[in-house]
Sequence to fold (176 residues):
Amino acid sequence: MENNPSSSRTDRKLIERNRRNQMKALYSRLNSLVPHHNSREPASLPDQLEEAANYIKRLQTNLERMKERKDSLMGVEISTNTTRSSSGPKSPEIQIHEMGSSLVIGLTTGANSQSIFNETIRILHEEGAEVVNASFSVVDDTVFHTIHLTVGETAPDYRATRISERLTNFVNDADA
Fold:
């Protein structure tokens, strides 16, 4: 190895120049990913970095808000510092919406509670309801069932009330 100080200084300058060029390219790449609302003049590097940091913070805030909205739309209760899977089987829940001679049933169960859905369909059949559509979605260990049905033309209010009572009692008994 040569002890030439000018060679060593040249190497350090070259390494530093390469580092600065690489940083400049990375800053440019970061800046290209951030939407710019006012591009009347080029922003300084610290301003570009601050704008990128603020943009990332806005994205994180939007993501959290969207997650909360998704959970609220899906009927999932947000519990802090708890895991649903370790708390045992999920208690079934039912929501029934009457719309004239039609009912929409929302049934939420644990992933291993297929019998609750089957029994719900059996009760609907016993009551003479016609299931028009049934669907489900699975999120983690929770199953969301949606059942659309008609209760017929003869005394629809009475039949809808009777179906609502039977299903509510059944789900509450299954929870106990």
Notes: Strands lie at 93-99, 102-110, 130-139, 142-150. Residues 77-86 have pLDDT under 50 and may be disordered. Residues 45-74 form the longest helix (30 residues).
